[in-house]
UniProtKB/TrEMBL annotation:
Domain ABC transporter: 335-564
Name of the protein in question: Thiol reductant ABC exporter subunit CydC
Name of the coding gene: cydC
Transmembrane stretches, start-end: 53-72, 133-153, 159-180, 245-265
Domain ABC transmembrane type-1, chain residue ranges per copy: 19-288
Length: 572
């Protein structure tokens, strides 16, 4: 039941609706049995021409039971569906609460399309657990027990036959069907996740696929995957229909056996003839809802697989609720890397190995090195986004893993290599960093990063697709000028800009961060002379660190070799 722990916990929160659903389901079931039993008895009694008042009482009872059955059935549907939708809402909120703090780490392990399939498809599948798995057998069993007690009063032999038939329907059929269902359910979930991921890749990469003339090939592959999934779904539906037909046939067979058995008892004089139709109608009605047992294994396995796929997303992660310390506001922040190694999931080699250094409040730090050397990973670690394998990062003397991330992020200004822009106006994208920023402050921020030719009303398309690479970088930096922060983390903030514009913007950043801590990742080595510390990385390791002068004095140093090579390239 561990796989179903998520949906079970959410169900327990809706005990009232669950109880009312079962109560009205029982009333609906028992009144339906009583209605058909009374109808059979009415038909049998009418054949003997009884007094009119007898028929009137029976007809009135049938009408009352019919009305009661309809009202009870409405109550059952109302409370069961209300409970289901509330459970589904709680599951969605629970999944979001667990995934949101871990989003960056989760997206390093799973494709975005697969996450979408889990958050949407798997959560949606869990709606069937209460309506199709938990609720039907409970109501069916309770109604059947009450019916059997009444039937035993009339005929013990018929009651035992019904018990045997119901045992097969409630236990044997679901168990056998479940064994077959387990083989197909897992592959269906995996196929749906793979299809969602493939479609997401096709959607996001459509421009590149078109340029390289691979869009049609990718589309054909998607069509094949979709047809394969549809074929699997159709096969599953045929299997469910066959199982349902088997249960219906068996239920009708039990009713026929009851009719034959009751007829034998009537012939033997052990049962009144007027009860023959009653027995048959009871057997027909009490087995009326048994077809739900045919689909129960499918929905049970689907619910287990869906719940398991959701739980495994965050199962081995360390959520933020384990954090116990709030970082004090307006207190200078110091980072201390102690032999830190970082390795991403499914990667054979560590991205960073044995990194040790300190960042003191107010320092201006540059992290340099070739592409893939681990520079961005160090910054991701400072943001709690990278998976630390060994070592520890301390912030003001406390382990980073014990800090509430929000208390750290509130004091940070961050510009990553890839920044997100929302569909909307320039003003809305700027105020994303500070909801209290006014139009004047936003215009000033645009002026500082040389985007004053844009008005605040100008539209920004999804992901900033109508902006150039340099404009995206400058817009991301403009956000930072609208927000007070004691630490600025800049990952290649000006890599898409020309040298003159880059220098002007870096001058503006220097003015704005005169008393702040600044960590900048750079490829170009110009403008590093005044840095308090330069950290040089290569192949995931810190090979050098020190001031510009200290590094340039090292004749065999890696930094000096890179600087001389850059100077030679600039000379040409």
């Amino acid at each position: 039941m561990k796989d179903l722990s998520l949906v079970m916990k959410m169900m327990l929160k809706e005990k009232k609706d669950i109880f009312l659903s079962i109560f009205f389901g029982f009333l609906a079931g028992i009144t339906a049995v009583s209605l058909f039993a009374a109808s059979g008895y009415l038909i049998s009694q009418a054949a003997f021409a009884p007094p009119i008042y007898t028929l009137m009482v029976l007809v009135a009872s049938v009408k009352l039971l019919g009305i009661s059955s309809a009202v009870s059935r409405y109550g059952e549907r109302y409370f069961s569906h209300r409970g289901t939708f509330t459970i589904l809402k709680n599951i969605r909120l629970k999944v979001y609460d667990r995934i949101e703090p871990l989003a960056n780490r989760i997206l390093q392990k799973y494709r975005s399309g697969d996450i979408l399939a889990r958050v949407v498809g798997d959560v949606e599948s869990l709606q069937h657990f209460f309506l199709r798995v938990f609720y039907p057998p409970v109501v069916l069993a309770v109604v059947f027990i009450a019916t059997v007690f009444f039937t035993m009063y009339l005929s013990v032999g018929v009651a035992l036959t019904m018990i045997a038939g119901m045992a097969v329907v409630l236990l044997v059929f679901p168990s056998v069907f479940y064994l077959f269902q387990r083989k197909t359910a897992a592959s269906m979930r995996e196929r749906r996740g793979a299809l969602s991921s493939a479609f997401t890749d096709y959607l996001y990469g459509f421009r590149e696929l078109t340029i390289f003339q691979q869009a049609e090939t990718k589309k054909q592959q998607l069509d094949q995957d979709m047809h394969h999934y549809e074929a699997m779904k159709a096969k599953e539906n045929r299997q469910l229909a066959m199982r349902e037909a088997m249960v219906i046939f068996f239920s009708f067979l039990v009713a026929v056996i009851v009719l034959v058995q009751a007829g034998f008892y009537v012939a033997e004089g052990n049962l009144a003839g007027t009860l023959l139709a009653v027995m048959f109608m009871i057997a027909i009605t009490v087995f009326e809802d048994t077809p739900s047992m045919a689909v129960l294994p499918a929905h049970l396995e689907e619910s287990k697989a869906s719940s398991k796929r959701l739980i495994e997303v965050w199962d081995n992660e360390t959520p933020s609720d384990t954090a116990e310390h709030e970082l004090e506001a307006d207190v200078p922040i110091q980072f201390d890397f102690k032999d830190v190694s970082i390795q991403y999931p499914n990667e054979k080699k560590a991205a960073v190995q044995h990194a040790s250094f300190q960042i003191h409040p107010g320092e201006n730090i540059a992290i340099v090195g070739p592409s893939g050397s681990g520079k961005s990973t160090l910054m991701q670690a400072m943001l709690t986004f990278a998976p630390i394998q060994s070592g520890q990062i301390d912030v003001n003397g406390k382990a980073l893993s014990t800090l509430v991330p929000d208390s750290l992020w509130r004091q940070m200004n961050v510009s990553l290599q890839h920044n997100h822009f929302f569909y909307g106006s320039m003003y809305e994208n700027l105020r994303f960093a500070n909801n209290e920023a006014g139009e004047k402050a936003c215009r000033e921020a645009l002026k500082k990063i040389q985007l004053s030719h844009f008005s605040l009303e100008d539209q920004v398309l999804e992901k900033g697709s109508n902006l150039s690479g340099g404009e995206k970088q400058r817009l991301a930096l403009a956000r930072l000028f609208l927000r007070d922060a004691s630490v600025w983390l800049l990952d290649e903030p000006t890599s898409s800009l020309d040298a003159i514009t880059e220098q002007d913007i870096m001058d503006e950043i220097e003015k704005a961060t005169k008393y702040q801590t600044v960590v900048t990742i750079r490829h170009r080595l110009t403008g590093l002379e005044n840095m308090d510390k330069i950290i040089v990385m290569n192949h995931g390791e810190i090979v050098e660190q020190g001031t510009y002068r200290e590094l340039m004095k090292n004749e065999k140093g890696y930094f000096k070799a890179m600087k001389e090579l850059e100077n030679q390239q600039l000379a040409f």
